[in-house]
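Re: the 380-residue chain
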Amino acid sequence: MPFTKLGLSPFLIKALTAQKYEQPYPIQEAAIPAILKGKDILGIAQTGSGKTASYVLPILQKLQKQAPSKNRHVAALILVPTRELAIQVNDVFSLFGSAMPERVKSFAVYGGVSINPQMIKLQGVEILVATPGRLIELVESKAVHLSDVKILVLDEADKMLNLGFREEMNRIFSLLPKKRQNLLFSATLSDDVNNINEILLHDPLTIKIEAEENTIDLISQLGYFVSPERKGPLLRYLIKHGGMQQVLVFTSSVFQADLVADKLRINDIKASAIHSKKSQGAREEALNKFKAGKLRVLVATDLMARGIDIKFLPHVINYELPRSPKDYIHRIGRTGRAESPGEAISLICPEDQHHFKIIQKKMGKWVTMIDSKDLDLHGY
C-alpha cells in the first residue's frame, strides 16, 4: 500500500517523495491511519523498522487542524530514554514539519547540558521531545506545562523501563490530562511494558511486527574464534585488511569502549567512543563525523547506539557479545537496512562460545565461524 492511501496530507506526501520514501514500512501502514483516527496504539517492532515516522507524520497532520496551544503548554509530548534519540526524533519532526503549510514548532530537551537555553527556547513549542529527568526539571521551573497535552508518545518504552525511569514516568503521567491519545512503541513486549500499557492505553490497536527474516538475510554474518590476547589485533586486522571505511563496533561497557577506541587511534585508525560518560557535545561531534564519513570507526555501548540511525551502514562488529539474543539482533540490524546488504562480525573468545550458540538458536540462523589462529596478526 503506498503512502497516498494512508490518509496523509498532500504536503506530507510531497515531503516523503522528496526524501525518496517509496513504500511505508509495515508499522507505518498499520499505525498512521489509526493514529489519524485518534486510536491509542501499542506498537511492537524492532529498532530500524520505521517507528518514528509512524507517529511523527500523523501528529504533524493532527496538530494542523487544532488551535495553537497557550505558550509553554505543549500539545504533543514524546518521551525517550536518551539524548541521542531525542535529537534524532526532533530532527524527523523538523524535516517533515517544514513541509506543512503552518509550521508547528518542535524542540528536544535532555540532560547533560545547561537547562537555561532550553527554558528560553521552549517559547511557542507545541511538540516536545524529552528525556524524563530533564522534563521534570523544566516542569518544576514552570518552563513548560503538561496540562494541555493531547498526544503522549512513549518511544523505546522497554529501554526507559529498563533504565529505571519508572518513578519519573509515573510522575509525568500524573501531570497529564486524563483525556488524551496515547501511543506506546517498544522493541519488545516485556512484563514492564505490558503493565504500563494497561495503565496508559484505552482500547488500543496492538501492532506487532515480527523481525523480517529477509532483513536478517540481507546481513552477511561471520564469527571469528579468537583468544582474548589476539582480540584487539584481530579487530584492527579486519578493519584494515577488509578496507572497512565505516564500522560500528559494539562493546558491553564504557571502559571497554574507551579502551578499544584508544587502541584503534594508536594504530592509525580514526575512531571515537560514544557512551554515557562522554559530554553531550563530544557525543554529538563523534556521531556527526561518523554519519558524514569523517570518522572510520564508532565504538558504542548498546544504550548509546539507540540514537544511531544510518541507512546504509555497511559494517557492524561485536567486539563483545550483548547479554540477550534480542540485543544481538538489534545490534546487527543497524546494518542491512533499506534493502541494502550489510556485514556483521562477532569476535568469539572461548568463554563466549556457549552464549553465542544460544544467540544463534534464538535467532534461528547459524553463523559461519572462522578460526583466526591461522591469521597473521603481526603488526596489527
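The longest strand covers residues 219-225.
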